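Much of what follows relies on a compact textual record of a protein's fold. With that in mind, consider the following protein and its fold in token form.
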Amino acid sequence: MNRSSILVVTAAALALGVIAPAQAATAEPAPELNRARLLAAIAPRPSDGAAGTVAEVHKKGEAWRGAAGDVVSGRDVSPRAHFRIGSVTKPMAAVILLQLSAEGRVDLEESVQHYLPGLLPEDRFKERISVRQLLDHTSGLPHDLEGAPASTPDAEIEGRLDYVTFDEVIGETLRPEGRPGPGPHFSPGTRQEYNSFGYRIAGKLIEEITGHSYQYEVTTRILKPLKMRDTRAAVPNRSTAVPRPYLPGYLPRSSGELVDVNVQGGLPASMTSTTADLDRFITGLFDGRLLRPAQTAELFAIPKGTDSKPLPYADGSHCNTGPDKGTACFSVGLMSTPLPDGSLLWGKTGSDPGYRSGVFASRDLSVRAVYAVGTSGPVDGVPAVAQRLALAAFGS
């Protein structure tokens, strides 16, 4: 008997007084996921800066997938739409280096200076920075292109088509032309500060150790084993479109005109994916298909100081919720976020021009969520759509 038939039979039995309400509750337990509430949560609102949304939620054996928008063009968005995943690629880079660690090809405690001599200017970076500190955001390194003049909206739209190698972004950050190069923000290992630049160096390290391109390593080690057939790495020296069906993402010109920016160049680590593929990734990551137990444990270990307490977080940009507010919330590759009941989700958010995304799961994988937002305006911090989705899926 299917679910609808059970509901009909149960309702009829209640009306006739054949079974008691308690028996009816036993026959058909309340669903874990309120689908109408989830769909309402991802519907773009005027203040969201969102054009459209795709999302997928799993909770205690139930699954839901939905889409809303595109409010700019008026076209529907497919729940299977592709999108740009931004920094959701960081856990993939961490996986590759953790695998190389298990293979004895890299030591996470060894220094960047050892593996990539001369990359960090010695006059500014006198202290050793370990590979682990790159991955758990405790390196103290500067940010990408720190000190460069701010870009204009029109320049950002045009510049999205550029493909930038790891060497180029590292060189332009550490040895910029026409201005002094930046130094460290703090002594390595003394605090935590989210840092994408450390992952540019991690990408360079992967290529140096393996002798292969980043795209080859991520495809061979992660995408193919997990059958992530709808996930694609950037094509070197080219700009590419998000595969169809796709979630449109828009940036505004200085004139106010919205431009669909799904065509981009990006970095070697840039990728497009779907909610289903990112769910495959986090499931395969947590269930041991990608990493051995010792390396898997790194995903859930928050860096601590000599006092055995979590390191302080450098500013208020992250790690600002829950009882441990103000202390480190990033591990090697992942970030933790508390739920209202005190449990933790682990995962990663991402940002590319026109796109915001995220994938999170409980350690036992009984709770998982993936979302992507195509923007239509400025989105600061966690998108409002994502906050509503989390409340609808996991709130009381």
